[in-house]
Amino acid sequence: MHKIITEALHFMKVNYLKEKVIKQSDRPESNRIWNYSYEVLKEAIANAMYHRSYQIREPVEIRVYFDKIIILNRPGPDKSITNKDIKNMNFISRTYRNNRIGDFLKELKLTEGRGTGIPKILRKSRENNSPRPVIKTSRNRDYFMMEIPINRSFIEKRIEGKEPDAISLRPSGDQVGSKSGLSADELIILEKCKKESSVIELMGIVGRKNRTKFRDSLIVPLIKQRLIKMTIPDKPKSSKQKYLITEKGKEILDEGKK
């Protein structure tokens, strides 16, 4: 677990974290800010690994968009925490999941202790002049999702028609990444296609909005590689069209889990 967290943090730091130096006219010292606070990401990822269920075979997900990072784990917060407290980010739980893991992460200095994660995330966000993170869950509390907004100084004007990148890191073994050569989004689609799935369902799970671009960049290549197939191959544009993983696709997924 320690290796998963540290490798994920290293990957994020190398590929996504950017620093900006802002000179001040009234003093010699410059302000240094980051698009995302490393300490916020460290605490959020460690908390997700701490509080996830290890009986549910769903890894922690990290998705990187042009204006935010989303970290998701399952299940959601304990029902002793009210919806009002979740909205106010006031987490005082009567029960704690995975106590031993929490103690282990504390010894490794990846967390500070029970009930300290959210306050630290809020504090480090303020120190970096970043917007306040947002926490979301479902009515049934079956997931916990934290949205970490980018520092406003790093928001760039979007190119018309360009979709933001959505990348999912699903650390489920000793390494972060894929041995198959497929992208994280392609692996997620393969996993989803174990059951017949529509294009809308697949777009939703990887955070895409442009159907044509999504189909051309992800669905078509997977079909050409014979990793997924159409359920109605004679009518490719059918409104009832769905996609299903092939035996070759299953082999790719199995190899990635070894």
Automatic annotation (TrEMBL):
InterPro entries the record matches: Fic-like_C, RecG_C_sf
All copies of domain Filamentation induced by cAMP protein Fic-like C-terminal, residue ranges: 194-246
UniProt xrefs under Pfam families: Fic-like_C, HATPase_c_4
Superkingdom of this protein's organism: Bacteria
Protein name: Filamentation induced by cAMP protein Fic-like C-terminal domain-containing protein
